[in-house]
Amino acid sequence: MTKEKRQILIFLIFALALLITPFFLQGSYYLNVLVFIGIHTMLAVALNLLLGYAGQISLGHAAFFGLGAYISGILTTRFSLDPWLVIVLAAVCAATIAFVIGFPILKLKGHYLAMATLGFGIIIYIIFNETVSWTGGPSGLSGIPSLHIGSWIFDNDLYNYYLIWIITLAVMLLSINLSQSRIGRALRAIHDSEVAARVMGINARVLKVQIFTVSAFISAIAGSLYAHTMTFIAPASFGFNFSVELVTMVVVGGLGSIYGSFLGAAILTILPEFLRFFHDFDIIIYGLLLIIINMFMPGGLISGLQSLAEIAAAKMKGKTRGDA
Amino acid sequence: MLGGMLTFFFLVIFGLPLAPSIILAILISTIVGITFERLAIRPLKNAKPIRLIIITIGASIFMRGAAMLIWGKDTHALPAFSGNDPLYIAQATILPQHLWIFAITILIIIASRLFFNHSIIGKAMRACAYNAQVASLVGIDVKIMVMLSFAVSAAIGSMAGIIIAPLTMTSYDVGIMLGLKGFCAVIIGGMSSGLGTVLGGLLLGLLEALGAGFISASYKDAIAFIILLLILFFRPEGLFKKKETERV
Amino acid sequence: MFKNLFRIIFTLLFFVLLAGAAVAAPPIKIGALFSVSGPASFLGEPERNTAQMMVEQINKAGGIKGRKLELIVYDTQADATKAVQAVNRLIKDDKVVAIIGPSTTGDSMAVIPVVEKAEIPLISCAAGIKITEPVKKWIFKTAQNDVLAVARIYQYMKEQKISKVAILTVSDGFGSSGREQLVLQSKDFGIEIISDETYGPADKDMTVQLTKIRGSAAQAIICWGTNPGPAIVARNAKQLGIKTPLYMSHGVSSKRFIELAGDGSEGIILPSGRVIVADQLPNADPQKKALLSYVNGYRKQYKVEGDHFGGHAWDAIMLLKRAIERGGDSPAAIRDELEKTKDFAGIGGTFNYSEQDHAGLTKDAFVLVQINQGDWKLIK
Asked: How far are the Cα atoms of A284, B1, B6, B64, C50 from residue B67, in angstroms, in the given order?
């Protein structure tokens, strides 16, 4: 089997597994959790394009997520525009902002880049909080309509599940393609050494801004979908903490792996459910997780799984050979 | 954060007098700083900055969580070092605690300047910051230098937490914004320039206060970060530093 | 003969025991959403403690009609996403018959659509007026509206002939809702707001805003926020030597505030639930019995003073208990009985729910207290 074919197969199995999952979870609360995992996966994939492939950190990605959510929320509640149109509009808006600030911001490196993106995130967060007449301020914006196609309204977990996951799967497919295209290879070159990449004729600067824009675009879509499924949004969901949580998802799952992003998003969304037994310990466990994974598994959990699978496969092979 | 909370801890829980509490708090923060360097940063000495940043974030989350568990979520008030009665100088009122802050800050600046410019260890540390490989070639133990720098910054950080706590009170989540503002000040002033950092801090505070007065206080933090972004965009080397050419 | 009688009695006894066991078997499940950690933990923690204490007490006394209560608490961390996940879990997995909480207005607004769709009664412990206005069929609340607190302060100011005030509010849910009401009601009481300042929830220094206010002709300053912000305002005001009387909101009516603000708290006036001045109340006060039992019980169990935030959870549990006693444990019956609640003297005030009113309190729910030598003093 060629590498390409194998990848298509993996994706198809993955997609199929997700699409039949609801039949085992009828009416369960976990369906609702899976809806959030879908949204978080979209965000993690978006951030992974930037962090994992291009190697550029962003501590302000919650801002793009929030921009999507708020633009959707405001335009649909105050101007009763068509939600689908607004999703596109919001994504384009966020992408434009990313494009404009991308040039000066992505010129920076390391700590400076982290600080600049963080600053951007906090500024946007403050704007959500303070423009009360538009955003409803800190106590939030309610009454956002659910999405609908004709008379088909996405207002329960099952419909939302399919809505979110079909879009998420599309985003994942797009990202996998992107990462294997010429652009993906160029991005990895930038990640390894920007200087070397430039020497080889890659326009690193423009490329970084482009990927930043794409990432913001996807994040904003996730934000809009979040607003329409929750029907309520408040600034607290788009603050610094959430940006950090997103980075954690990507790191835990595996830098530069699309499936890793799914794994990271799933773990960090479900983890609090289990950590409830530990009550207030969850914040400590987050911190430890971040440190430990970073120190001992720089490739994230997905690479750990892969090497585990490889070891298992090798053992199996060894065994069959031994038997024969 | 750690400084303030620890002082509170020794002061109130153990009923120790103020001075020993502060010294113990600084000592423990320093030890925590060294431990963190030893356990988390050193094993990764050749890692990309991105991983170091993420680890630092992880560590700060962890410490905040630990502080929350040990001391609870409440805000604690620390007594002022010497009374709470304002002094009147001309029209302005000033608290004794303000004077303490000024005095200690100036002391720290002078001490760090002397340390970095005139002591062997200080010079060695600067050499490491400039180029670790070359530094190790001339016989400087880079590992020890990095550890020392963590210790010094943890100590100064906790000192800052302690002297400001009587004014702002202290709780497990007090550190983030202060830390971020500190970083702003450093960037405004320019990295590794002591005086520049102080000027940066002053300028930041002044602009924030002016912005709050003229525009709106609710955008105070936004103003601080807009300034940060502008400086990063147009003068990433800081306002008070001569431009260095970067060669690749 | 004698043997037969014995046999009959024995059989009867057996059946009674069996019936009793069958009745006692399934506990009534009640869900609770509190922000036990995160920025609003000062609300969620006493609320959770209180709810757990109440359920223990009720169960120890034999439960409701012989059935025990089971309380399932989830932490929302004052995050809308987590609140929605938790409420879904309560409804779909735990299958609770009623929910108390969330602690904050934001979380409440986030879970309301879910709860309404599932048709489960919810008694919110948050203060925002949006929660029960317009009236929503399944939603009630126990926390006093900001409207009432503002009215109480303005009424007092009018009596004191204060007509020009400066307001300083925190830019979070609590503060912005208070600010809205302060501005809205000022005209009704003939009060002019001549300075309108805000500060951020994490701000550590409010001297800038206070300096601006000092330069104005305000006769009083009203600060609207929850700890630690107002404590810093009180300290800053003292540092700046401001002599203008300072008013605060019910958001700081816990002993913590006095500890944090130190000398700066002296003389501050604020509206509060009766809980902090329970022992100063006249014996005729209908709430006194409930208040004393709550205050003493909380002190015994948790070794700290109960505050009026915990009181919101006390009220919510007691309201539920009464509703279940009267109408049984189906969500619809609980809702209907809740709406019929009349003259229930709880911690927050005397509740009267009706079809048009799911908040149930009047401005008598608040008393004004002044801080005097580090303690509360009821203003008569």
From this structure: 10, 9, 9, 5, 24
Angle at which helix A29-48 crosses helix A204-230, to 10 degrees, equals 160
**Chain A: closest CA distance from residue B227 (Å):** 10
pLDDT tens, position by position, C55-82: 999 999 988 888 889 999 998 888 888 8
The number of domains in chain C is 2
Asked if B150 and B214 sit in the same domain, the reply is: no
Question: Which residues in chain B have Cβ-Cβ distances shorter than 8 Å to A294?
Answer: 44, 51, 54-55, 58
- Interchain proximity B61–A115, CB inside 8 Å: no
Range 204-233 of C in CB contact (< 8 A) with B: 204-206, 208-209, 211-212, 227-228, 231-232
CA-to-CA separations, C197 to C164, C175, C223, in angstroms, rounded: 14, 11, 9
- Measured N-to-C along each axis, helices C288-302 and C308-327 cross at an angle, to the nearest 10 degrees, of 110
C249 plus C161 within the same structural domain? yes
Q: Looking at chain B, which residue has its C-alpha nearest residue A240? A: B176
Q: Measured in Å, how far apart are chain C's first and last C-alpha atoms?
A: 74
Same domain (yes/no): B58, B103: yes
CB atoms within 10 A of CB C93: 14
End-to-end CA distance of chain A: 24
Residue C24 tokens read as 């006692």
CATH of the domain at C250: 3.40.50.2300
User: How many other C-beta atoms can be found within 10 angstroms of the C-beta atom of residue C136?
Assistant: 15
Of the candidates C39, C200, C261, the beta carbon closest to that of B218 is on C200
Size of interface B-C (CB pairs under 8 A): 73
Determine whether the interchain pair C197/B217 forms a contact, defined as Cβ–Cβ distance below 8 Å: yes
Which domain-ending residue is among B128, B149, B170? B170
- Out of B62, B183, B233, the one facing A115 most closely (by C-beta) is B183
In a domain, A281, yes or no: no
Q: Domain range for residue B203?
A: 174-241
Average pLDDT over residues A282-310: 76
Residue (of C318, C312, C323) closest to C348 by Cα position: C312
Q: Which of C41, C206, C238 sits opposite B73 (nearest CB)?
A: C41
Question: Exposed/middle/buried for B18, CB within 10 Å: 0-12, 13-18, 19+?
Answer: middle
Closest of B111, B209, B102 to residue B163, by C-alpha: B102
Last residue of one domain, picked from the residues C272, C300, C319: C272
Q: Do C241 and B84 touch (CB under 8 A)?
A: no
- Integer Cα distance of A268 and A285 in angstroms: 11
**B237 and B151 in one domain?**
no
Q: Which of C41, C199, C239 has its CB closest to that of B217?
A: C199
Q: Which positions of chain C have pLDDT values less than 50? A: 20-22
Residue of chain C whose Cα is closest to the Cα of A272:
C82
pLDDT in tens, A45-101: 999 999 888 888 888 899 999 999 999 999 999 888 899 999 999 999 999 999 999
SS3 for B34? helix
Please name the member of C39, C45, C259 whose beta carbon is closest to the beta carbon of B77: C259
The number of beta carbons lying within 10 Å of the beta carbon of residue C95 is: 11
B177 near C CB under 8 A: yes
Is there a single domain that holds both residue B130 and residue B209?
A: no
- Calculate how close chain B gets to A283, using CA atoms only, in Å: 5
- Residues of chain C neighbouring A29 (CB-CB closer than 8 A): 88-89, 91-93
Q: Considering only CB atoms, which chain C residues are within 8 Å of B88?
A: 241
ipTM of the complex: 0.78
Other CB atoms within 10 Å distance of the CB of residue C303: 7
Return the residue of C nearest to B177 by Cα.
Answer: C202
DSSP state letter for C25: S
